[in-house]
Automatic annotation (TrEMBL):
Single GO BP term: GMP salvage
One CC-aspect GO term: cytosol
PANTHER family for this protein: XANTHINE PHOSPHORIBOSYLTRANSFERASE (PTHR39563), XANTHINE-GUANINE PHOSPHORIBOSYLTRANSFERASE (PTHR39563:SF1)
Membrane-spanning intervals of the chain: none
Keyword Membrane: yes
GO-annotated molecular function: hypoxanthine phosphoribosyltransferase activity; metal ion binding; xanthine phosphoribosyltransferase activity
NCBIfam families per the UniProt record, alphabetical: PRK09177.1
Protein name: Xanthine-guanine phosphoribosyltransferase
SUPFAM superfamilies for this protein: PRTase-like
Length: 146
């Protein structure tokens, strides 16, 4: 990564609000925050879309700004239930980079949709909703990482 984009809370919050505006109301029963990056945008989307059912799934691929092998750190137990249709879940992430995390999750939840606040070219086509496009070689420092 050659450049850094350092985001403050206000900039990130405004981007999340714009993301909420392009997601159809009442299309989803629940949100799945992909931890850790998806926690903050999922909370904002939850308020704006009036969705109270939120699950988390833990997938890790970055260590010290280096992308490595994917690891499932916490499964989304509720999603294993037959009670809720998987197509009604919206997975939420702060960023889609190479798309490896989303491809990994789509193996288990092929009918789920994905929303990311920021999208890089290599992974952008994998998400249904995103609002900010950034170059592939930019490293983003999110407010909770500073």
């Amino acid at each position: 990564m050659t450049e850094k984009l350092v985001l403050d809370w206000q900039t990130f919050h405004k981007a999340c609000k714009r993301l909420a505006q392009i997601i159809p109301l009442e299309k989803y029963d629940g949100l799945v925050a992909v931890t850790r990056g998806g926690l903050v945008p999922a909370a904002i989307l939850s308020n704006d879309l009036d969705i109270r059912l939120i699950e988390t799934i833990g997938v890790q691929s970055y260590q010290q700004q280096q992308q490595g092998d994917l690891q499932l750190v916490k499964p989304a137990y509720l999603l294993e239930s037959e009670l809720i249709e998987p197509q009604r879940w919206l997975f939420v992430e702060d960023l889609v980079d190479s798309g490896c995390t989303i491809k990994f999750l789509k193996q288990f939840y092929p009918r789920a949709d994905f929303a990311c606040v920021y999208a890089k070219p290599q992974g952008a086509e994998l998400v249904k909703y995103s609002v900010e496009q950034v170059a592939q070689d930019i490293w983003i420092d999110f407010p909770w990482e500073i």
